[in-house]
Recover the amino acids of this structure.
């Protein structure tokens, strides 16, 4: 799971202000009150009930909830919820959502496809990354391709190391490090980890964890961010390093566990 998805999942799994039965959630999702429909989509993602897939796929094509600027708030929440549920039946609908005129729907669809981990998403994500017809959610597209281990996207991602957005550069760095293990890419993350902007430091913290760069564990432990975030980032680095398998498990543990112990 990528850094952005980690933060978004935390916000999507907060204490529920109102419990709903399955029947109530579906009735609200399919009702006329826009606020109730928006909440119901969020709720279905939070409870992660696979029965929600089909109703949420219908919501992903909704035309009623549209802002004055052309955005689709319900579609955004439906895409996010489908990623939370994690059912492969959602893949075709989410791929179709990548063509939505709403930038944020495309962004949510990309993150959801990353969570689903289905390789069918690689080609449409890569095509969108290579598109120059309109502004795209570059960070989400790059991170989704990274989570899908789409090494064929390396050439398309590499130019984003020079993107004007620090967040986009950081995403490109951790994904390309996963693809190549080129040490110079870690320096982009290290520099952002010391950025004066606290939000960028937090993003770089989790991007470094996603990279799987085990040698970066001391930097995560001492970064100028909140203690709970440092702990979570070290845990994520541990999981990613074991998943990637570049470093023997004993060495992963020796590099990361002492850093965690110092924080407790």
């Amino acid at each position: 799971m990528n850094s952005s998805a980690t933060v978004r999942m935390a916000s999507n799994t907060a204490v529920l202000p109102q419990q709903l039965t399955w029947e109530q959630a579906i009735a609200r999702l399919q009702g006329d009150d826009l606020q109730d429909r928006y909440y119901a989509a969020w709720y279905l993602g939070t409870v992660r009930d696979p029965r929600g897939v089909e109703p949420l796929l219908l919501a992903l094509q909704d035309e009623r909830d549209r802002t004055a600027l052309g955005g689709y708030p319900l579609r955004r929440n439906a895409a996010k919820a489908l990623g939370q549920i994690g059912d492969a039946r959602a893949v075709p609908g989410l791929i179709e959502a990548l063509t939505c005129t709403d930038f944020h729907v495309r962004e949510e669809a990309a993150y959801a496809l990353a969570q689903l981990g289905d390789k069918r998403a690689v080609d449409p994500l890569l095509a969108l990354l290579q598109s120059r017809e309109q502004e795209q959610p570059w960070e989400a597209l790059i991170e989704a391709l990274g989570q899908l281990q789409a090494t064929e996207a390396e050439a398309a991602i590499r130019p984003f190391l020079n993107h004007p957005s620090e967040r986009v550069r950081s995403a490109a760095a951790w994904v390309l490090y996963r693809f190549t293990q080129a040490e110079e890419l870690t320096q982009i993350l290290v520099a952002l980890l010391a950025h004066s902007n606290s939000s960028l430091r937090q993003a770089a913290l989790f991007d470094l964890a996603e990279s799987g760069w085990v040698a970066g564990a001391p930097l995560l432990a001492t970064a100028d961010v909140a203690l709970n975030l440092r702990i979570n980032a070290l845990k994520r680095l541990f999981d990613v390093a074991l998943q990637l398998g570049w470093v023997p498990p004993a060495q992963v543990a020796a590099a990361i566990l002492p850093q965690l112990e110092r924080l407790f």
